[in-house]
Amino acid sequence: MEVLVVGAGAMGRWAGETLAAEFDVAFADRDWAVASAAADVVEGRAVALDTTETFDVVCLAVPISAVRDAVAAHAERAGRAMLDVTGVMADPVEAMREHLPDRERVSLHPLFAPENAPGNVAAVVDAAGPLTDAALDAIADADNHVFETDPAEHDSAMETVQAGAHTAVLAYALAAEDVREEFATPISSVLSDLVDTVTGGTPRVYREIQESFEGADAVAEAARRVADAEGDAFEQLYEEARQRQRKHADRTEDGRGDTE
């Protein structure tokens, strides 16, 4: 069985290296040298982005904004199945249904940067089969936790855990004054570490997340509520935040209990 990974960037390389446990791997990328280097790591091969070959599986590791066009462009190369690891789910699932109605289809979102693997991987199993099962097994065997969701739940969650979280961290970085390290508190130290993590990434990737998911405005509105609150109003907001966090913690604990 052979999988073609379209896009040999960081996430494409993660996909290829992970799937290599079950598949022979080929890479295609706009940059031939990048595709060749990725292929060498898994003892695979590089192919032209416009190849006429057919593969058992095509895995798309392209930018969010390019995924619909990529599904259409590479559908004929996917002999039996298509996967994507783009980070959005409504668009690729809809496009795969349109262009690959009779083939296996799975949308995946590794919820981590490749250098932080393993981790949680969200999965929309839209049309299951032996090849997508093998791909999911390879991901799970690499110590990742694969959990099923649907496009609406996933994309809604990204408004909080990605767009909203990134907005909060970047806003803190933009607002923070340069102070001596001795003044750092446990909370400010954690925030500074988060700033390092976010700003150590690729701006284009974060831009696409912000443009794809809402969430920034909600964080900005909440920050304004905190900034404007005085006296009892501030304490009420503080208590509201505490209660929301407790509910979140309870839901998380209930979810873990269901899977054990």
Brief sketch in words of this structure:
The protein has 260 residues and is of the alpha/beta class.
Descriptive keywords:
single chain; 260 residues; alpha/beta; 8-stranded mixed sheet; 10 helices; 8 strands; elongated
Write the SSE topology.
Blueprint: E1 2-6, H1 10-19, E2 24-28, H2 32-41, E3 45-46, E4 55-60, H3 67-74, E5 78-84, H4 90-99, E6 104-110, E7 120-127, H5 130-141, E8 145-148, H6 151-175, H7 186-199, H8 203-212, H9 216-228, H10 232-259
Helix pairs in contact: 3-4, 6-7, 6-9
Order of helices and strands: EHEHEEHEHEEHEHHHHH
Give the terminus-to-terminus CA distance.
33 Å
- The structure class reads alpha/beta
- Estimate percent helicity: 40-55%
Q: Could you report the average pLDDT, rounded to the nearest whole number?
A: 94
List low-confidence stretches: none
How would you sum up the global shape? elongated
What's the main sheet like?
A: 8 strands, mixed
What would you note in describing this structure?
It is a single chain. The protein is α/β, with parallel strands linked by helices and 260 residues long. Helices cover 54% and strands 17% of the residues. It is built from 10 helices and 8 strands. It has an 8-stranded mixed sheet, sandwiched between helices. Strand 4 (55-60), helix 3 (67-74) and strand 5 (78-84) form a beta-alpha-beta unit. Helix 6 (151-175) crosses helix 9.
